[in-house]
Fold each of these.
Amino acid sequence: MNGLTDQERKRYTRNLVLEEIGEAGQLKLKAGRVLVVGTGGLGSPALYYLTAAGVGTLGIVDSDQVDLTNLQRQIIHSMDNLGQAKTVSAYEKLARLNSDIRIVPVQERVTTENACRIIDGYDVVVDGTDNFPTRFILNSACIKTGRPFIHGGILGFTGQAMTVVPGRGPCFQCVFQEPPSPGTVPESPGVLGAVAGTIGTIQAAEAVKILLGTGQLLIGRLLIYDALQLSFREVQVKKNTACPICKAL
Ligand SMILES: [Zn+2]
């Protein structure tokens, strides 16, 4: 593995002084490959912080274009990007923030057919999607290929996060069982942008901890954030021994 350049040493000074990171940890981040699926409310802060932290390879998956209604929470995009592919818009911001990492735009919609191919080559997958079916697909592909999956979700003034590490605790499907039937969930629900910021940032911290191999992950713990009450609480969640996705692990 290559060492750090002088520029990297300077850029990551505040990482390097941390006992939990140091030079060895920064090299782990540099060698790390994180895929963020979705460049929306969750993906925006997650991508910014992972880029700033020096994660060496960052994949960004999105098939949408930037719309004015996105800008209330999807802070990686701006007025200049309206109508542009979100991957292009995100790439441009992140490349400006950190030219020492590799950013790989993936202009695709995740499906059952392509999920394993899209996540191939990454160490960790961050869920920045806005719909349940895609989360079930990603969870299944991550379990199948042995990759950690960091779930995040937001609705109104509340948000939730949970980390799935195959073979260690429950998977997303153990907890949520099946996607809600079509029509039962509003297509464009209200959500406070700042809540997305909090949850996406928690997901970024989880991804960094996985790459470093340090700290306690949100495994078997569903974290629930309520911005109106300003409270965080945890629900202990168990592996479903009959889960069709992870029971064999
Ligand atoms: Zn499961």
Amino acid sequence: MPPAVPGIRLREMFEQTFPAKGLTLVPQQKVERLELTEGGATLHLKDSYGDVVIETDATILATGRFLSGGLQADRQGVHETLLNIPVRQPASRAEWYRSDYFDPQGHQINRSGIEVDGHFRPLSADGAPIHERLFAAGILLAHQDWIRQRCGAGVAIASAYKAVEAASKIVSG
Ligand SMILES: Cc1cc2nc3c(=O)[nH]c(=O)nc-3n(C[C@H](O)[C@H](O)[C@H](O)COP(=O)(O)OP(=O)(O)OC[C@H]3O[C@@H](n4cnc5c(N)ncnc54)[C@H](O)[C@@H]3O)c2cc1C
């Protein structure tokens, strides 16, 4: 998919501006495993030099939906790929789509995603945060239909702002 101009600008920020502020970018690699620990999490990934292990005080999950690999769908339903976080989704596959593609109500599958509390922390099946220091942002979140509302970038930016704010408050006590 050709990148949008804001995407190119954002990437330039990640590569040129943010490192000066202490950010380390591991480009083009996906976290293969995420272990939640008492004080945060351990992320496991690989780059061209081998294994990379990152210890975090807080983690913000922003892995997107189907196109980016944050969610995966099979005949049984929709799954979150890294931690198997419960995904809010239609009760059966028959309810994923309405018969009219252009139905103004949209399609239920496009509201699938993970649910969070007021601090943007993903919820387990019993409705409690999965971990004090695990946060989520972006279109991975349930209930918003960015495809119909054309608000994907807005959802990503606004929810990331709130998740970072909450993470920073919780980590700093
Ligand atoms: C064709 C198209 C047109 C669009 N047009 C518009 C528009 O006009 N207006 C608008 O507002 N929105 C639009 N959107 C939607 C917008 O692009 C998304 O809503 C927005 O990018 C969502 O941001 P996000 O950060 O939540 O997820 P994404 O942008 O999907 O980013 C998720 C990132 O996580 C990475 N990732 C996934 N798994 C892992 C892992 N295990 N480890 C590390 N990284 C991982 C992925 O590689 C990806 O880079 C469009 C989308 C598409 C596909």
Amino acid sequence: MPSVLIVDDDRKIRLTLSIFLERRGYRVRDVASVKAALTALKEFRADIVLSDLKMEGESGIELIAALRADYAAIPVIIMTAFASVEKAVEAIKMGAADFIVKPFAPAEIEQLLARTVRIQGLEAENRNLRAVLGQNDILTRSEPLRRILAMAERFAKSEATVLVLGESGTGKSMIARRIHAASPRSQGPFVEVNCASLAETLLESELFGHCKGAFTGALKDKIGRLEAADGGTLFLDEVSELSPEGQAKLLRFLQDKVFERVGDLTTRAVDTRVIAATNRNLRDLVSGKGFREDLYYRLNVAEISMPPLRQRRDDLPVLVERFLAQAAARNGLSSIPVLDDEVNAQFARYNWPGNVRELQNVIERCVILAGAGRITMEHLPDRLLTYPAS
Ligand SMILES: Nc1ncnc2c1ncn2[C@@H]1O[C@H](COP(=O)(O)OP(=O)(O)O)[C@@H](O)[C@H]1O
Ligand SMILES: [Mg+2]
């Protein structure tokens, strides 16, 4: 059953609602102020917040604003007296999911809660559906990649940590999303962290969260991506870039499913599955002491190696067709451009160091230059024209 955080300065209302909802099987926490609500949310994983609109000295609108910053996914239902329905409308504009006018019958609030939970679920489902149908639609004609996709489907059904290897642009991120979408966790969040994108200390706090005062600039408690991915999947891209401390914390999490936020003593547990990716040779990094051996063996319980595009040239035609159609749509063309034979031949010869991403970019460029006309050699970037260098 969903969990509900009740925020109201009226003790009687809190009590009545808590008792009613608890009897109905909801997990309930109740607090009397916006500040208490924000504190409670650090411990209490609410699916819905049910908040009074006017409380002593503060308003539910402030709560919505604060929640939007840190807990954007939690819907807020506003409870309001009839006299301030206008305020409730303002609350909706601020991002509240719905409102209910006081006094209300318990059955009314129950219906509203059920509906809100349902809508949340549908939205999550829609997002996944879009992901599966659109971006996550992995095209291939090549036998090795097909076998890899079949293996990914099997890994998806398990809880195993997956390590995705492959050059940049080979589809590592895509397959990670695919595994999540095909897993029993597909309704949960898919959270991505690129370990190369942040400085060491920031990355640790981004991943594991921190508590107020953990370092200069840590003005309040913050949950990390690992916690944000609770019930879902955490995708650690460029995992080779993790600092030794980050590696140690990740290893502990993979072994025992527990961790601490930076600067915090409380040990926490979350139910997050990890998928990691790298374009480096991790085995080499391990022997060069750049990466912990024990972590490597924890990560590669299930390993997927994405082949470079030059080793699966039979994929070129389907990919080209797809990217041409996408680029045409993006650039507002009414018909899909055609490639000269010469261009196709050059595509088939080229070594594609940037793999599928490079192909996608080259086609986008061609479509911008050629419009709806034929794409000829003159539209290709120099590196393609001069390949192979003589
Ligand atoms: N087999 C494929 N079918 C369709 N699109 C693909 C395929 N492989 C990669 N792409 C696209 O190529 C781009 C690069 O893929 P991505 O997963 O980001 O690669 P990586 O994470 O390995 O760098 C993305 O836009 C992705 O949608
Ligand atoms: Mg990627």
